[in-house]
Amino acid sequence: MRSEDIEDYAKGSTNAHKMAAKQQEISVTEFFEKNKQILGFDSRSKSLLMGIKEAVDNALDACEEAGFLPDIHVRVERFQEDDEYRITVEDNGPGIIHKMMPNVFGRLLYGSRFHALRQSRGQQGIGISATVMYGNITTGKPAHIESKIEGNDEVAWKMDITIDTKTNRPIVTNDTAFAHEGWEHGTKIEYTTKGRYITGRQSIFEYLRNTAIVNPHAKVEFHDPEGKKYIFERATEQMPPKSKEVKPHPEGMEIGDLMKYVQNTQQKTVRAFLKSDFSRITDRIAEEVLEKAGVNPSAKPSSLKREDCKAIIGAITQVKIMAPPTDCLSPIGDTLIKKGLMHILDGMKPEYYATPVTRPPKAVNGNPFVVEAGIVYGGEIPSDGQVTILRFANRVPLLYQQGACTITKAISEVDWRRYGLEQRGGKGIPFGPAIILVHVASTKVPFTSEGKEAIASFPELQGEVEQALRLCARNLKSHLNKMERKSKTHAKFEIVQELIPAMANKTSSMLGRPVPDLSGTISKIMNVVWVEPGVKKGGKNVLTVNYTVYNYTTQERTLRLHAHLPKECVNLTLFTNPNFIDMNDEGKTTWEIKSLLPSSSTIISFELKGDMADTFDADDIYISGINPVLVMGAEALPGDWGIKGLDITESDESIAAYEEEEIEEAEDLGEE
Amino acid sequence: MRSEDIEDYAKGSTNAHKMAAKQQEISVTEFFEKNKQILGFDSRSKSLLMGIKEAVDNALDACEEAGFLPDIHVRVERFQEDDEYRITVEDNGPGIIHKMMPNVFGRLLYGSRFHALRQSRGQQGIGISATVMYGNITTGKPAHIESKIEGNDEVAWKMDITIDTKTNRPIVTNDTAFAHEGWEHGTKIEYTTKGRYITGRQSIFEYLRNTAIVNPHAKVEFHDPEGKKYIFERATEQMPPKSKEVKPHPEGMEIGDLMKYVQNTQQKTVRAFLKSDFSRITDRIAEEVLEKAGVNPSAKPSSLKREDCKAIIGAITQVKIMAPPTDCLSPIGDTLIKKGLMHILDGMKPEYYATPVTRPPKAVNGNPFVVEAGIVYGGEIPSDGQVTILRFANRVPLLYQQGACTITKAISEVDWRRYGLEQRGGKGIPFGPAIILVHVASTKVPFTSEGKEAIASFPELQGEVEQALRLCARNLKSHLNKMERKSKTHAKFEIVQELIPAMANKTSSMLGRPVPDLSGTISKIMNVVWVEPGVKKGGKNVLTVNYTVYNYTTQERTLRLHAHLPKECVNLTLFTNPNFIDMNDEGKTTWEIKSLLPSSSTIISFELKGDMADTFDADDIYISGINPVLVMGAEALPGDWGIKGLDITESDESIAAYEEEEIEEAEDLGEE
């Protein structure tokens, strides 16, 4: 219709006609070509990173989907002339079938993960094609793709791809099959792009390093433009659990969404529609919802009017529906977060890795999400500036747009002074020798733009991040407290143990009388049960742990010890220990010491062996069944530790106090 | 092709086949429907604002394009039930022709301004359709549109519009012509949406108020949900100059862009192509570029290879090409910025409106842009927190994502301690009683997302913002300095004028001798030429300005006075003043006082009349032709004042010092 219309309008005399003559469709490719910054391609340095990020994200997604431990090679080469770079990213993923290669790399808004409700890095079907487009715009050269799928009989394919920006369709040249000895399967992209290679906080190196932290199952090799090679080795052979596709959760659904679902469903009745097209809706719940909504369960879905849909939406908020399923998500888990952080940060010799926190799943707009947080403290981490923030979304590091991200806003909202960090006025990014890690995993991370650099500030999401941070910060704080108390008591202990015998000796010798037995006296003065952890490294991945428990009180003492062990690392030595009582599914372990006599001691000893052994922090030891005021070197078992049947009435009251404060703060939560 | 392919792939046994079966196109509407936060529709409160913003932006664009002074009505009504609101935005624009109404409101990526290189608020063809879509998703109701184009014979049309998200096409119902007595032309949109009505910094009221600041030619009426009515009256009847469409500027063009242009040009030779398809390329420049590039000027454009294009791009950087034309831009201008700020902020009785700065145009990626900055200081502006930042892009206030915006980053990079504001460590948002306004006008503002909430950090752009801020801050600082010096000298002056005569009287009476003439003595002690501004308001929009110049030195003095007057407000009283010398196009005015005798004074007096009269600050008075150290109450004429033929060798050296520091700082400019 366009051309004759335009002529018509141009003839029209009014302003409206003149404007109408200019109205036209905007191709999505043209839109992004002229708004490259929205895709994250603004400065040359950032653009160089963006492309690599998109390629590596895709490689990791593909490997995990196929169940292969990722092995990824990244190479950045500088051309002699000007600011052109050649980037190569190669993976050992399942490969892409020949016919699909052009669309995957040469068409925006095309992909396999957009419609699937499960956690993945790529979701938009934009990133890698945008990379191809940017490379082509800035250098005029196509991208070169090679791929080989599984199977001995399959050949590999290679081709050059660019995008036709008018039509958003791939243009393919040099499409060739070839044999590649020893290539089992995988994909390789090689493209040229203008860029600027930088080092530091927002560098490619930093991105790959942070990727290794949250993807401890991946091996990443990086060749920088100087020809230097860096290898981030796998920290574990354990693949993350594969995330499953789920149906939408009814909570937070908009009326417009429901109106669309009822038109598109295959089901014949509203009851069947609710049950089969959503997660967590049973027959009983469907009945209950429809009764409250006043809708006939046997009605045809397509017969529902706007008012019916509105009533159903209203009823859903009143009926108790199970939280969204979580097998669509793949959080990293506290042990692996710690392992990843240690793997990368050990050079800084941090004083303490606060036990990371993985929150229970919630949903925002029907999309389940999980928040995880970790804090690393002290050692050689610089202490004079703001803390370092490591942001991650679906296991991808976010290096840009820190100020725009809900994670940063959440960090600014927590009062860190309470947890031992400096913070002016109790707001803003805190100062001190700490690294704060936050990971948001979701079936759809709500990024602020297609560049996927920052997470939008939905109140529910930001609140969860704050909660995770407070819980993790509390772990840090209780460690700092414990260390302080311990060092004070240690000092006192040393004085008592040296001074009293010396005084006794002196007095005795002056009086010419025998030196008395002093252990009772020392116990009277100290009046503590002393728990002393000891750790010995016995070769790679072997740890021998000893807990020596001294009774420096004047009575017999019975108590239980608790520690969270990396389950896969324990062996017979744990179970044969006479004090051992139980280990649960998570590796939370209980020992009991019965009737420990005054002035006597006992040792609990066991071995940890394997990849995760070094994530165990022997200082994280808890006690129950005894007044915690009497114990030095171990904390009272927290109320949320989650082992049933244990007497935890003596648990630290300060935790309850924290919780209250947290609830108050959570209620204050504003928007942006 | 899809369905049979999917079956094929699903049969395949490899991971690659399974994945291929899921690959599919993503409709742009579905993409944005599932990523509403990218469009700015995340929290309910923000969504409510976003829709109004899009509608008002469109209304202002349409009025300006047609040359009508905008008259805009915004109404927000709350429904009794739940959190549904009805929004109405009505304008007196040129209207939309009947056939175009569905596409304008019911189709994403459709519009008249995307391909045009000129300043406008809407550029993406997304905003208003996204508003219609969000209203429909959250309430299930269509938007209702009415429009009437110019012409007495024309009828008005109304219709209901929703978007088919699968196809990204409008669905129209109730399409009806109607007669509307007294409606000359205009457009009205009425839609329902879920939302949350908030007050404060990110409210609809604040958005409209800030819109009024930078659009002093618009009248905006607002009815809030309580039924209260607010009117932001027009501050001026003067329409902003209409921005013209330009061709792309060759600077900063990417090779891929050029390769596309050569394929699409109508021109027969490369020479003609360069000259006609770009701005600022003359025959001579085309020849020079092509010679340097080694390309035959008579070659057919489509025959150019990648290497030729690369050579041309290289040559363009070596040939001096005029800066981009600026009639595609419509900056607000310093006077109108001040007027707008005064209009809105006078309730806070600020101590000083620092003379706003409009920078010369630059280009980023071939798109011309201009940066403007203003600072308001003191009075009842709160002094205990961070300064308030007012961000604007193409005359639209930006209320969200402050942390993500290049304007905020630029403010954080300026060392404000140097200009009289508090700032910890010389970095970050400063503290103090100030409001900082920054306006970026461009043919394509590089927003970080489709929600148009923050401007991306291109180094060239951020550098310009920093420069504008420093220049404006210098105006503030020199005012603060002048005020401080003036108050000190005033004190001294009062003492001298009271004390000396009193002493003389006393001594004379004691000695019985006549009181001597003291004017020479006072001059000797003071040794200044005193410039005293005086302003009298004579009814609405009339200002009588007096400058009294006293010579308290011991010699005859000749000097020139300079002030920047609102040109359209001067009248005969200015030109008939015997000291008047000249007024240039911008209103910069010069007077000369010849041979003013010691201990004598003279008065320069004139009247300002009109809208802009009150934007004149009589304290902003400059001198030349005299050693500025001798003058109190007026500053040395700055070197960049821009009046030729004046002796400005005595100009304040501190300015040069500032400039040097600025250059250093500009060189330090990092990214993000």
Q: Would you write up a description of this structure?
A:
2 copies of one chain form a homodimer. Chain A is of the alpha+beta class and 672 residues long. Chain A contains 17 helices and 25 strands. Chain A has 5 domains: 1-26, no CATH class; 35-232, Heat Shock Protein 90; 255-318, Helicase, Ruva Protein, domain 3 (Orthogonal Bundle), CATH 1.10.8.50; 334-477, Ribosomal Protein S5, domain 2 (2-Layer Sandwich); 517-660, Mu homology domain, subdomain B (Immunoglobulin-like), CATH 2.60.40. Chain A is globular, with a radius of gyration of 31 Å. Residues 644-672 of chain A have low confidence and may be disordered. The interface between A and B is large, with 93 and 93 residues.
Note the topology.
The structure is a homodimer of 672-residue chains.
Chain A: H1 2-11, H2 15-20, E1 24-25, H3 28-34, H4 44-66, E2 71-78, E3 84-91, H5 101-106, E4 110-111, H6 127-139, E5 143-148, E6 156-164, E7 169-178, E8 186-194, H7 204-214, E9 219-223, E10 229-232, H8 255-264, H9 270-277, H10 283-293, H11 306-318, H12 334-345, E11 352-358, E12 362-364, E13 367-377, E14 388-393, E15 396-398, H13 406-413, E16 434-442, H14 459-511, H15 519-526, E17 528-537, E18 542-552, E19 557-564, H16 572-575, E20 580-583, E21 588-596, E22 601-609, E23 622-624, E24 631-632, E25 635-636, H17 653-668
Parallel strand pairs in A: 2-9, 14-16, 17-24, 23-25
Antiparallel strand pairs in A: 2-3, 3-8, 5-6, 5-8, 6-7, 9-10, 11-13, 12-13, 13-16, 14-15, 17-18, 18-22, 19-21, 19-23, 20-21
Helix pairs in contact in A: 4-6, 7-12, 9-10, 10-11, 13-14
